[in-house]
């Protein structure tokens, strides 16, 4: 068999430089992964809150968050279960805009992304500032479906996708690290796909 197919596979495909180690290109597929049941959130009652170590705890309604300066991420996403997707376009608002409005206190070092469902994920403050993280409601020009975290999700695309909390309800600023849901259940604390920080100890 190997002999018969050698010619067919003779030209080795170059590995796509956008693909981190151990990942594959999911192409048209976008797998849905949640630990909890998919909630139905009404945008009329939806809120997003920045709280904890901030000068002023700040809450935005759906209309208020849409009135902030828009921001877009165009690029790739990587799930720890080994799928990656290239060239996604997400629209929403930069986390910088939200944190600036609340005024992060100098003692803050970490954030917890919190979902309306109770899901949490922890991040160093430096991983959500400087244009690296967003709260998004559109993907490729369409509203995020409920399955993918609609009406809005966190997006931290330089880290594995479990950091991108679906149905996000806010960010909590802390002066210490505190593992979130998956981080307490064996996933790596930070989750850099380029160094394969998949599980605790990686
Ligand atoms: N609220 C919530 N957000 C979540 C999760 C979850 O279980 N609950 N799973 C994470 C994981 S492990 C991944 S890979 C992505 C999956 O997003 P998707 O279903 O849109 O592909 O969401 C992340 N955000
Ligand atoms: Mo994941």
TrEMBL record:
Residues 1-26 are annotated as: Disordered. Residues 37-182 form the Oxidoreductase molybdopterin-binding domain. InterPro entries: OxRdtase_Mopterin-bd_dom, OxRdtase_Mopterin-bd_sf. Pfam families: Oxidored_molyb (PF00174). This is Molybdopterin-binding protein. It comes from Pseudonocardia hydrocarbonoxydans.
């Amino acid at each position: 068999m190997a002999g018969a197919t050698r010619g067919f596979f003779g030209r080795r495909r170059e590995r796509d430089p956008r693909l981190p180690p151990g990942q594959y290109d999911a192409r048209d597929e976008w797998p849905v992964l949640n630990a909890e049941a998919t909630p139905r959130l009404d945008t009329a009652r939806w809120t997003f809150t920045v709280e904890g170590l901030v000068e002023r705890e700040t809450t935005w309604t759906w209309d208020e968050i849409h009135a902030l300066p828009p921001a877009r991420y165009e690029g790739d996403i990587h799930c720890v279960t080994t799928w990656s997707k290239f060239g996604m376009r997400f629209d929403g608002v930069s986390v910088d805009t939200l944190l600036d409005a609340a005024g992060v206190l100098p003692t803050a070092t970490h954030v917890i992304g919190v979902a309306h469902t109770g899901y949490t994920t922890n991040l160093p403050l430096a991983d959500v500032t400087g244009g690296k993280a967003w709260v998004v409601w559109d993907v490729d020009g369409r509203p995020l479906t409920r399955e993918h975290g609609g009406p809005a999700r966190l997006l931290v695309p330089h880290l594995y996708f479990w950091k991108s909390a679906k149905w996000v309800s806010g960010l909590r600023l802390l002066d210490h690290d505190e593992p979130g849901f998956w981080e307490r259940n064996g996933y790596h604390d930070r989750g850099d796909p380029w160094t394969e920080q998949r599980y605790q100890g990686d």
